[in-house]
Here is the input.
Amino acid sequence: MVLWCPDWPVTASGADPHTPVAVLAGNQVLACSESARAQGVRRGLRRREAQGRCPELTVVEHDPARDARAFEPIVAAVEAMAPGVEVLRPGVCAWQARGPASFHGSEAAAAEAIIEQVAAGTGAEALVGIADGVFAAQLAARSGRIIPPGRSAEFLEPADVGLIDRPVLVDLLRRLGLRTLGAFARLPAGDVLTRFGTDAALAHAQAGGQDERRLAIRVPPEDLTVSETFDEPLARVDIAAFAAKALAARLHETLSARGLAATRLGVAARMSGGEELYRVWRHDGLLTADAIADRARWQLDGWLSRRGPSTQEDETGGVTHLSLVPDGLLAQAALQPGLWGEAGEGRDRAHRAASRVQGLLGPEAVLTPVPGGGRDLAERVRWVPWGDERVPLASADQPWPGAIPGPYPAAVLPEPVPAQVLDAAGRPVTVSGRHELSAPPARVAGVPVAAWAGPWPVDARWWTVTEASRRVRFQVVLADGRALLLVLSGGGWRVEARYE
Amino acid sequence: MGTALPADRNNPVAPGDRRAALAEVLRSGALAGKVRTATGGTGGPAGWPVPGLPGLLPRGLQHGQVVTVTGSAEVLLRLAGGVSGAGGWCALVGQPALARAGRAAAAAGVALERWLLVPEPGTRWADAAAALVGAVDLVVIAPAGPVPAALAGRLAARARQHGTVLAVYGALWPGPDVVVEAGGCRWSGIRHGRGQLRSRRLDVTAAIRGGRPRHITLGADTSDPAAEARGGLRLVTS
Here is the structure.
């Protein structure tokens, strides 16, 4: 029994399915809504072509994670009526028909009941198909048909050979003149295996309606969370850490008894003041008992010492309830350390230390710079918290006219500091709308100016009212050898950076 | 009792010959790279090269050293650039202004993907620094005030034990291994209302404990060649 939600990527994207919508993956249409299809948009079209056929088309980027997330409630709804649901891909799930069919009296009644349940629970439109194998049932679901037992081969016979999702094999079969699943299925199985290999033999069996692949059953996740309630609130870090260590050992035991390993760890604590705290820790490799204990301890250390040593006893109190929530579970055998990214001893050590400091000061306290584009010094290198993806906001490769050239200042002030810039007569220096200087600057904050250059105007985003900023920049070398980058905007001079 | 004992029951070589053989082995260099000090870190014997400050530290930055830098953040970044350029990891605790100078760091040779920043550690800077010392290859700290001797000793011991270079910027530190001072900065390329900051000369002195101070003048043109070609800045609106 297979449940199929038509145009799932479109539904998951949250766009109104009654308007023309297309989901694009890599500039090609992956899925489109019914009304877009009516106007000639097809799967595989390029963005421009699709927009040409349907000018009012809404275009959404494909996000597999979003599809999977949105599909979860539907799986849960099905699970409420049928045990052992397997997700084939977001939008399609399968389960054994026998149980629900005997419960509802017939397969048709069971299908009807599940469609209703899904519609009532999630509001999603779905079709159900029943056939002997998962492959045939998927095809049956597209038309909402129920194929009687033993008739699947007959049902598959006229279908296009392209439905077996193997482009290379399909291309070959087409060139051999085999255009339907039936024609492919009539080839002797032994010849298919020797000529095309195991995968093709599997496809051959599917085309003959005989895939007896056992469903890999999705077991509803067990509650693996370990928790502990403390009668006496734990206010001291070392005592809390000791409790966390015991919990970590228990969690690790629970996980390894099931052959699982966690890649993420949630630490949740309830404080005696009633505050609920929760933070998730990510890890590249698998979390060992010690790693779990370390993270729990760092987190507790961060939470408890954040409040300040003097006030911790009376005001917020300590931890009354602590739980460790494993997440991102993997079968242990499938896990290989350093699966992605640069692995190495140096990186591991740095990562551990950075995580430790994040536990002390919060995840935003440890940063790593990412070069990007922009006219401001601050824009040209962006900070991202350690552990997040290093993606620049704007490309550094494009020309950024008006950006300051090298050599670059080694101290970029977080908040530009106001400074007084006076001319030789002691009057404040101003710049007119035509970038004319009232008089050469002679003193900056009381220090004589040895050399200066400017004004260099930066008119960024003049087309928007809110983001527009008109500024002029100056470079100034003072008599004591210091060099400054000054900026004048809104009539006020500020020191933006120092060349140290 | 009065007679000499046989030279060695197990080894027929006389004591004097043995000493000579040992001296021979030590001289031959067969042990080079195989022996390291008991407290030595993970690195090799040569230390980190510092190509950004040519001739200043002839043996490079040694693992586990404490270096104080005053007078120029760029010199500090060049030290970090040497470690980073050789594949090491660097971290900066405090100094939000220096942390923001990512462009200057990249120009000094620091690989930004191996540059960890803790710009605002607040009162827990020592904890943050202690966590990073021993995990990365160079840690820059910039304490706001004088550092208590006990804390300084603890951090330095930890750095020595793990082979991490501890670079102290702009603060006094009891008993550093290397003192780097920069000064006498002279800018060129800028005049009254014309040109732009193009390059500078900087006098840098390094005093290694137990050695004579070395002095270099940094005068390399650090400006952006593309900007040179364009002839400086232009009036642009976009």
